[in-house]
Amino acid sequence: MNRLVSAFMLLLPCSLAWGAEPPALGRLFFTPEKRADLDQQRQLNLQESQTLQGATLQLDGVVLRSDGRKTVWINGRPQNDNTGSGGVAARTRPAIPGEATLTPNGEASVELKVGENINRATREKSNALGDDSIKIRSVHR
Predict the structure, then answer these.
(1) Is the dihedral of CA 73, 74, 79, 84 positive or negative?
(2) What domain count does the chain have?
(3) Which of 64, 84, 89, 95 is the most exposed place for a label (fewest CB within 10 A)?
(4) Does 66 fall in a domain?
(5) pLDDT tens digit string along 79-103?
(6) Is residue 40 assigned to a domain?
(7) pLDDT tens digit string along 36-68?
């Protein structure tokens, strides 16, 4: 009988906790004014990041997904598909995944490989690798 009472006493807290509902999380910011301020700041940040400015354009990376969508990094900023956000349209070809054709607004198109950049004024290309090679030296101990 003692074992039955002991087992019941051990299982009682578990059954009470199982039936309880988790507490609702609610909102992080409770006032409508604070939410409106955050929405306005988000819109200002989006407007600032929409233009790619600078003397050079650099192709930092290209990701082509199996579903056909893509992300291209130009000057460290991601662009999805053919949106042309930032004032630069990027076109890729699945046959050549490491290259993209960039077309800045009001400028001629240029083909760049990942890691290359172009001076927008002189149209001179340069490569982040310098001589197009990476040399690895092994260190013996």
Answers:
(1) negative
(2) 1
(3) 95
(4) yes
(5) 877 555 567 888 888 888 889 999 8
(6) no
(7) 887 777 776 555 445 566 788 899 989 888 888
What is the rounded distance in angstroms from the CA atom of residue 100 to the CA atom of residue 1? 79
Domain that holds residue 88: 54-121
pTM of the predicted protein model? 0.55
Task: Give yes or no for a contact between 119 and 55, defined as CB atoms under 8 angstroms apart.
Answer: yes
Copy the structure tokens of residue 64: 């082509």
The answer to whether residue 68 sits within a structural domain is yes
> Between the CA of residue 112 and those of 71, 83, 123, 132, what are the distances in Å?
15, 18, 12, 14
Report how far apart, in Å, the C-alpha atoms of 96 and of each of 26, 39, 76, 112, 113 are: 49, 40, 21, 11, 9
The answer, yes or no, to whether residue 12 has pLDDT greater than 70, is no
Q: Which residues of 111-128 are buried (b: 16+ CB within 10 A; e: fewer)?
A: ebbbebbbeeeeeeeeee
